[in-house]
Amino acid sequence: MVINLQDTTILHNGVKMPWFGLGVFKVDEGPELVKAVKTAITHGYRSIDTAAIYANEEGVGKGIQEGLKAAGISREELFVTSKVWNTDLGYESTIAAYERSIQKLGLDYLDLYLIHWPVEGEYKEAWRTLETLYKEGKVKAIGVSNFQIHHLEDLFKDAEVKPMVNQVERHPRLTQKELQAFCQKNDIQLEAWSPLMQGELLSNEVIKEIADKHNKSVAQTILRWDLQQGVVVIPKSTKEHRIVENADIFDFELTEEEMQIIDGLNQDYRVGPDPDNFDF
């Protein structure tokens, strides 16, 4: 059971990944971003998730440096994730994209590097590149994002290294149970982006009723639901009180009945693109 903010899951290659982190999707470069990352680290977060396409890696890097100094911890105590974008999935272009990312972040290595989307006909070449980066020690772990079961099965045909993580849209309206079971069977850690459905679930009466029983917010209840199902979460926020509140979920536990009620909200509804039908 996950009992505190620094608790980790052990990926299939032995690397420890925090169960809980800060996401920075749609947070623009600038002081607000730097402050958010610094705030998260000083309040005990040990995982930061960004991507090349977010166009905010420099600010994230500055926030990391300020946060590490303020918290008095080393770089090795932080887990930093970035992702290679769809237009950079060739071998040389993925190498170049990785180099740009670590340069902007001001880091010597990434803890986790992901293929952002399963672009048909291109993700296998990108995966070969990620395997090279991994074997060379430039990344501690490699994985994918938005991959469905058939994408993973296709990748397995040629992969030398199996993905350690699959980061996907997941929330009570999109539980992706079959994908979760497949990932568990294959020792791939599932990670949820948009765990709060970009805020759309915060007024849900069913979850609010459960939350009230535990004197918690709807957001805290959803994040707890994820953790109790063995899913890593990276909620986004730039406000200090929300960053602190989101992580205050280690002093209660949802009952099996409550978990099933939240599961029952599933409608296979996406707020983001369909991995089988996207155009970027």
From TrEMBL:
PROSITE patterns: ALDOKETO_REDUCTASE_1, ALDOKETO_REDUCTASE_2, ALDOKETO_REDUCTASE_3
Amino acids binding substrate: 116
Highest taxon above the source species: Bacteria
Record SUPFAM superfamilies: NAD(P)-linked oxidoreductase
UniProt-recorded Gene Ontology molecular function terms: oxidoreductase activity
Site (Lowers pKa of active site Tyr): 83
Record has Oxidoreductase as a keyword: yes
Any Pfam family matching the protein: Aldo_ket_red
Transmembrane segments: none
InterPro entries: AKR (IPR020471), AKR5G (IPR044500), Aldo/ket_reductase_CS (IPR018170), NAD(P)_OxRdtase_dom_sf (IPR036812), NADP_OxRdtase_dom (IPR023210)
UniProt domain NADP-dependent oxidoreductase: residue ranges: 31-266
Active site feature: 54 (proton donor)
UniProt keyword terms in alphabetical order: Oxidoreductase
Record family assignment: Belongs to the aldo/keto reductase family.
The protein, known as: Glyoxal reductase
Organism this protein belongs to: Sporosarcina luteola
